Protein: 2-amino-4-hydroxy-6-hydroxymethyldihydropteridine diphosphokinase
Amino acid sequence: MTRVYVSMGSNVDRERHIRAGLDALRAAFGPLTVSTVYESEAVGFEGENFYNLVVGFDTGRAPRELDRLMHAIEADNGRDRSGPKFGPRTLDLDLLTYDDLVTREEGLELPRGEITRYAFVLLPLAEIAGDERHPVSGETYRALWDAFDQDAQRLWPVPFER
Structure:
């Protein structure tokens, strides 16, 4: 079994879509490790605030198969991919890591670059996998978070029944 981490976000009917995403992942993979849910401002466009979190689980599925499943769950939740890259999202699921696999295939980047670019990805990942190491830098996610410019992107935890 392979340990994977997936980021989850929504800024359209946030609670409903985050719950639906968690339910779909639990149905497909069983028990999940779930971070705190954080609220953050939209990045790259003007829009409603996002809810963001990271989930971890074990799987025997290949990375491409996981990516297709994430897209299907997004589609089931009304995700419209016809708009601009940065825009409102009913549900956004991104495969962040697949154990220590490093690949840059067409349409699949592992580990995902957003890990070290966005607080709304790194903080929840550091929360649930703080002692695990980034497959490229070798630093723990906790150390990456400690070194991150935490004033650059505001995040705040929100009460959320999982």
Q: What stands out?
A: The longest strand covers residues 50-59. Strands lie at 2-10, 33-34, 38-40, 50-59, 92-98, 103-105, 108-110, 155-157. The chain has a mean pLDDT of 94.
